[in-house]
Amino acid sequence: MQLKLGFNLVCTVIVALATTVGQCGATEGPGAAANTEAVHRAGELTPIGVNGGKAKLTPANSKVMFVGIHTGDKPDPRTCGFGEFSGEASFSADGKTLTGVNIEMKVDSLYTFNSNLTQHLKSGDFFDAREYPTAKFVSSKVEIGADGKGTLTGKLSLMKGTEEVKIPVTLSMSSAGFTLVGEVTIDRAKFGMDKMTEKVSKDVAVSFVLGEKTDPKSVLSK
Questions:
Q1: Radius of gyration from C-alpha coordinates of the chain
Q2: Is 205:185 a contact under the CB 8 Å cutoff?
Q3: pLDDT in tens, 146-185
Q4: How far apart, in whole angstroms, are the C-alpha atoms of residue 156 and residue 160?
Q5: Sheet of strand 110-111: strand arrangement
Q6: CA–CA dist 65, 91 (Å, integer)
Q7: What gap in Å lies between CA 203 and CA 209, rounded to an integer?
Q8: Nearest alpha carbon to residue 49 among 200, 197, 178
Q9: SS3 call for 213
Q10: DSSP per-residue codes, 146-211
Q11: What is the pLDDT, as a whole number, of residue 208?
Q12: Nearest to residue 198, comparing CAs of 189, 186, 210, 211?
């Protein structure tokens, strides 16, 4: 099973850190699955207002997701998310240029479509939520072109490791505020999440959508 942190931050971080279990096609990789969801929802996003060059990121206006797939002939994608997180997007003085995105997730707020899967992911086999209660993404560089597409670079801290990630993102600005969607694939083993690699892929696709509220019910199997 591949994990897709989803800040569908990283951290989509994270951040749309970016950014559903049972919603992904079994023949698609985790990255493809999240991109499909982001495209379908692109017209449904609600701009987040910017005040004094800052915008608060909460489950009420954003979501952070990840998708996991099993190794072998049956990937059986599992899309998951974080129910509790907080963060901030920063802008230039005129409010027109994104300059940074930071987000911190509570690992114990992880949710899936199945309670047994949820508890397993929180266990020492994967996220070890008791030992490592938070995951964090802190941006260091924002590069956005005139078409709104670009890269969000920053440090993702998860479990035992901190790694630099470069997240492809799409930014939309309007008089009402902004939306930001991003997705990146990470190697979970680099963060110390190195168990069960014979059954669950080390690659984790992490995505985030800033401009769409968190909805745990969205991962319910159809």
A1: 16
A2: yes
A3: 999 999 999 999 999 999 999 999 999 999 999 999 999 9
A4: 11
A5: 54-57, 85-91, 98-106, 134-144, 149-158, 161-174, 177-187, 203-210, 62-68, 78-82, 110-111
A6: 24
A7: 20
A8: 178
A9: coil
A10: TTSEEEEEEEEEETTEEEEEEEEEEEEEETTEEEEEEEEEEEGGGGT--SSTTTB-SEEEEEEEET
A11: 95
A12: 189
Both tokens assigned to 171: 């930014």
Nearest to 102 by CA among 46, 153, 35, 169: 153
In angstroms, rounded to a whole number, what is the distance separating the alpha carbons of residues 90 and 222? Answer: 37
Is the distance from CB of 10 to CB of 18 less than 8 angstroms?
A: yes
> Residue 76: which H helix or E strand, with range?
none
pLDDT(126) > 70:
yes
Q: What is the pLDDT of residue 42?
A: 47
Domain residue spans of the chain: 30-217
Average pLDDT in the chain: 82
Is the Cβ–Cβ distance between 45 and 37 less than 8 Å?
no
At 62, list the tokens: 């954003």
The backbone region for 192, taken as left when phi is positive above 0, alpha when psi lies in -120 to 50, beta otherwise, is: left
Phi-psi region of 118 (alpha: psi -120 to 50; beta: other; left: phi over 0): alpha
CATH code of the domain made up of 30-217:
2.40.128.110
Q: How many other CB atoms sit within 10 Å of the CB of residue 44?
A: 10
Q: Which residues of 79-98 are buried (b: 16+ CB within 10 A; e: fewer)?
A: bbbbbbbebebbbeeebeeb
For residue range 62-92, what is the model confidence (pLDDT) as tens digits?
999 998 666 777 767 778 999 999 999 999 9
